[in-house]
Structure formats: C-alpha cells, structure tokens
Amino acid sequence: MKPLSFFNKGVFFVNSLFATALLLAYLLPYIPPSTFPFLSILSLGMPILLILNITFLIYWIVKLRKQFLLSFLILLLGFNHILSLYKFGVEQYTKKPSDVKLLSYNVRQFNRYNWIEADTVTKQIIQFVGDQKPDILCFQEYDHREDVSFSSFKNQYRVLLDREERFGQAILTNYPIINKGAIGFENSNNNAIYTDLLIAKDTVRVINIHLESLKINPSVSEFHEKNRQRLVGRMSTSFKKQEVQVQKILENLNNCPYKSVICGDMNNSAFSYVYRKLAQNHVDAFKEKGESFGKTFVFDFIPLRIDAILVDESMEVKAFDSHPEIRYSDHYPISCVFSLTSDN
C-alpha cells in the first residue's frame, strides 16, 4: 500500500487530535466538575466530536486506508454515547387511559422581556399546552402574570424565586398532590421543586429541576476571541455549582420512599457528570423512544439536548417527543408518555 500523501498525513494528525479529545470526553461523566471544571466544557462538544470522528471514519474507509481503525475503535468504545446523541424513529403510540403524559418546558418567563418579537407568545404556549393535554405540566422559568392562566389544572404548585416573587418553577396537574416542597440552591436564582402525586393506587414523586445556567448566548458574537475567555470562566463556575445542586437533588431522592420522575432543564448535556448522577436508577425517555438528535436548546452550532425526562426504571416509557417546531422560548418543550409498571 502506498504511503500517505502529505495532505493525508495532515488529515490523520487532525483526526488523532479529535479522537483523543473524544476519548477524554468519554471520561468526563465520571469526573466531578469541581476537579477539572474547564475540561467539563468538552461534554457540551461531545456531539461535534462524535460527528467529526464518524466523518473521519467514512473518509478513511472511502480511501481504503487502515487509518479508519483509529476513529472506528474510539467510536466503538463509546457506542453508548452515540445512542445518546441520535435515535432513529419509533412507531407512533396511542396513549391509553392508564398512561401518564408529562410535558416539560423552559418557557423563558413567557417572553417577558421580548426576546422574541411577538406579542402572542403567552397565548401560543397556552394553546400548545391545551393541544398536548398533559397529565403533568412542569415549567421552568415560569412567570406569574395576569395573562398566564392554566386554569384547567386543578392542582398547581409554584415556587417563585426573585425578590418580587415573579418567576421560578411550577408543577401543574389534576392528580392529587399529597406532599410538595422545594430544593433550594445556595447563591443561585435556580432551584428544584417536587410534588408527590397520587396516581391510581401509586404515589409518584415528580421533581422539576432547573440547574445553574451556563449563561450561553446562542449568537456568533459570543464566540469571538474577546468574549470567549469570559464565557469559559462563567461555564466553569456553573458546572461546579451544578455538581452541588445535583447532590441536593439526590439527597431528596434518597429520602423518598416513592417511585420518581425527574424532568426539566439540566443546563448540561447527556454526556455530563450531572446527567449521569441524575439518571441513576432512571431511564432516559429520549433514549427509549426519542427520534433524531432530540435537540432542546436553540443553538446554531451544536444539537444540544440539555432538557430531559428521566423516568423511574420500574416504569415503562411508551412515547417521547421533542417539539422543535415550538419556537416560543430559547428551549423547545419535551413530552413523555409512560406507564407506572413495566410490561416486561
């Protein structure tokens, strides 16, 4: 076989760099962000690293070169990560009366500050919720205003955080709420709230989370050199805060005698330490019944899935949908249908 050309030697060198970065990123879910907060940023870039290594793999196969083995072996080693990145479509499922449908949505305060140039965002979100008919509705960045009304839900639990008690998290449902509470985060405008719901003869704890924001502005200017250093610093600080916040959520779960569902805005990817900790003893609804990249955040460069619904492993996920056509916030809503017991 002929030796590599000068150009292909350069390609393989770049391939080696991205393969090494991907291998390092595989380790991040097992390393607390407080240890290497800067490296934790790689977890957000995992989709790009996977796609690049797949591209290099195809390139070398087309060239009939043994260099394909580098990316092939790295991708094989992290095959489960590929399953977290992309899912092929599944058959449509018709919800049964005994099933539970949960909808989670970071509504960005219902466009209070006119991030979207439209006067009808609140009405459109209310209409969307009405069309979806969820049994449980979880909002992050819920804004309590006169024009925000979801009166079809008999039981509503809201915890509003800022000084004017204007916005926070909310859980709305028609199931009886037998217990409720908030999980406060120190030095943060975010929190988690929970309700214990009586569903048929079962009690289920629903935890609605909003972890520390990474404060990413999804615009090209944010990544110009003069802003990049500040952005990395902010994100590193946020990753460390998220680690502490997740520990408080896990403490709540450890003291909970019921099955649980965790949903909301993780502000982190499915390749991160905080996701791995939250997903313990739970099933990721996207990985079970999702489709495509499951993108949940409006971001041009990377298909970020930073919102999730994690269902107790004793339950069964029947359907999952992300709704990228719903552009009323910087997040897309996600919904899941599950049954309280597995058919397996």
TrEMBL record:
Signal peptide, first to last residue: none
Residue ranges constituting the Endonuclease/exonuclease/phosphatase domain according to the UniProt record: 103-331
InterPro entries hit by this protein: Endo/exonuclease/phosphatase (IPR005135), TDP2-like (IPR051547)
Cofactor(s) the record lists: Mg(2+)
Transmembrane segments: 12-32, 38-61, 68-86
Gene Ontology MF terms in the entry: endonuclease activity
The protein's name: Endonuclease/exonuclease/phosphatase family protein
Domain of life: Bacteria
Keyword Protein transport: no
Native source species: Mesonia aestuariivivens
Keyword annotations: DNA damage, DNA repair, Endonuclease, Hydrolase, Magnesium, Membrane, Metal-binding, Nuclease, Transmembrane, Transmembrane helix
